[in-house]
Amino acid sequence: MSTTTTSEKKELFILDKNVDVAMRDGANLKADIFRPLDDGKYPAILNFGPYQKDKLWTTPPTLEEKGNEYMNWETVNPEIWVPEGYVSVRVDARGSGKSQGQFEPWSASEAVDFYDAIEWAAKQPWCNGNIGLLGISYYAINQWFVANLQPPSLKAIIPWEGFADIYRDALFHGGITCLFMTNWFTAHMLHHQVGRASQTVTNAWERNTLHFWLSNNLDSGALSKSQADWDQITVPFYSVGNWTGMGLHLRGNTESFMLSKNPNKKLRIQNGSHVHPFYTADGRRDQIRFLDYWLKGKQNGIMDEPPVKLAIRHGADQIEWRAEQEWPLARTQWTKMYFDIASATGAGPYQGSLVDKNPSKESSCTYAATGSGSMGSSSAASAQVMGGGIKPDMGIALFTPAMTEDMEITGPLSATFWVSSSSEDMDLFITMRHFDEAGQEIMETGQQGSPVPVAKGWLRVSHRELDQEKTLPYRPYHLHQRRLWLTPGEIVQVDVEIWPTSMVFKKGHRMRLDVQPRDGVGSASYMHYHADYNTGTNTIYAGGKYESYILLPVIPKS
Question: In this structure, is the dihedral angle defined by the CA atoms of residues 406, 407, 411 and 416, taken in order, positive or negative?
Answer without folding.
Answer: negative
